[in-house]
Design a protein that fits this description.
- The protein is of the alpha+beta class.
- It has a single domain, classed as Hypothetical protein (Metal Transport, Frataxin, Chain A).
- It has 2 helices and 3 strands.
- A hairpin with a 4-residue loop joins β2 and β3.
- It starts with a helix and ends in a 7-residue tail after the last helix.
């Protein structure tokens, strides 16, 4: 299975999102200036559906 974490982080940074802190386990908390929300990002992102859901929560229209 593909690992989509690097692609997800690149898209988040491209839209001005910043890493706030490490979360529990293999998760990170990111802040999205697009909609002013915090988004939980799993470091073990193996599914493009998970990536698309995180992007949607961050207010970013792009999808993989």
């Amino acid at each position: 299975m593909a690992d989509f974490y690097r692609e997800l982080v690149a898209i988040l940074r491209e839209h001005g999102c910043t890493l706030v802190r490490k979360g529990k386990g293999s998760h990170e908390i990111w802040f999205s200036p697009v909609n002013g929300r915090h988004v939980t990002v799993p470091r073990t992102t193996k599914s493009r559906h998970t990536v698309n859901d995180v992007l949607k929560q961050a207010g970013i229209k792009k999808q993989l």
